[in-house]
Design a protein that fits this description.
Helices cover 38% and strands 16% of the residues. It has 12 helices and 14 strands. It binds pyridoxal-5'-phosphate (PLP). The site of pyridoxal-5'-phosphate has 14 residues, from α3. One of its GO terms (molecular function) is transaminase activity.
Amino acid sequence: MKKYNFDQVIDRTHTSSFKWDNVTYPASGMLPMPVADMDFPVADEILATLNRITDHAVLGYAIVPESLKVAMQAKIRQDYGWDTSLDWQVWIPGIVPGIAAACAAFTTPEDGILTAVPVYHPFHLVAGWVDRPLITFPMVQEGNRWTYDFEAFEIALKKGPKVFLFCNPHNPGGTVFNAHEIERIRTLCAQYDCLIVSDEIHADLQISSQTKHLCIASDINFFATSKAYNTAGLGGAVAIIPDKNIRDAFTKKTFGFFPMLTRHSIEVMETSLTMSSDWMESLLPYLRTNHDLLLASVNSLPGLTMLPLEATYLAWIGYDAKLHGDFQKRLFDAGLHVLRGEQFKGGDFIRLNFACPRVQLEKAISIIQQVVHAHA
Ligand SMILES: Cc1ncc(COP(=O)(O)O)c(C=O)c1O
């Protein structure tokens, strides 16, 4: 097995990087840990695919070949035991536009869009994009993890939303919903006639080796390889939609709005699904070690709390504002960029992306310690 070295620091500045080339950063530099991509090079096989396309040097319109469809179908069967038909697949350039299309297709301006908060911001922003009312309910801490307040969920469903946006694994809570929770979600949404739109983009990024990601197998299920294989800049995703009427209504909303997938994204997705497991087998232990280091460091500091993640590389860190003031700004001023809880409708929290070489994470921890101690 090839062992990848994720300790290698790669300069990403001046590469049109959303994360590293942020125009608000001072010239003296910033350690960026906001948007969810990893500071690691892709797997050798993915590089070989990209090089093969470059050598061929023709970049015309592309189609999704049967081989990619079959590879995705096989993954869903292998991971979840769910037998899907190739006809159920709708290939799209990204999950966020897919969520917007689903919301536009299955709600009217009177219907609400329902989601739990805190949540990955497009889940709540989409209501404004498509001019629909937003209905939310809170996540709660139960033991050592974030889960739904199911009573609040039912109260929210009584308001009549027609689409429920389900994020599993949850960003930013890191929750992998268990079989019991998934059954409750399915039952409640069926009872109140609310379509489930499920986003499983973080499914392969399992931080807890005790947890197994389960797919809700609902009305619309989004899958992508881009998060786990670090190809987010290329895009590409699939919606699995078993019902033909729902599939046709969804697809109609994409016409004229969604560009065709690029050859790069198509071939890279197929490579991700069919290549050796070496890269993922190196990546997960590395992310788990980063996670454990961050968890222990954060929880040893006054006024900061982090729950262990079951999945994702996005830490959700609560802070005592009486002790730490505007913590996100204070960290920014000290050279560390993390996202504000408010962006996720989450209050006094920050979200920190720890998918980076260990030396960068150590630097981030040291900035957090300095900022905390400056006030303590
Ligand atoms: C839960 C979730 N869904 C979707 C996306 C983005 O998906 P895409 O790039 O396919 O639009 C992200 C990116 O961070 C995410 O965290």
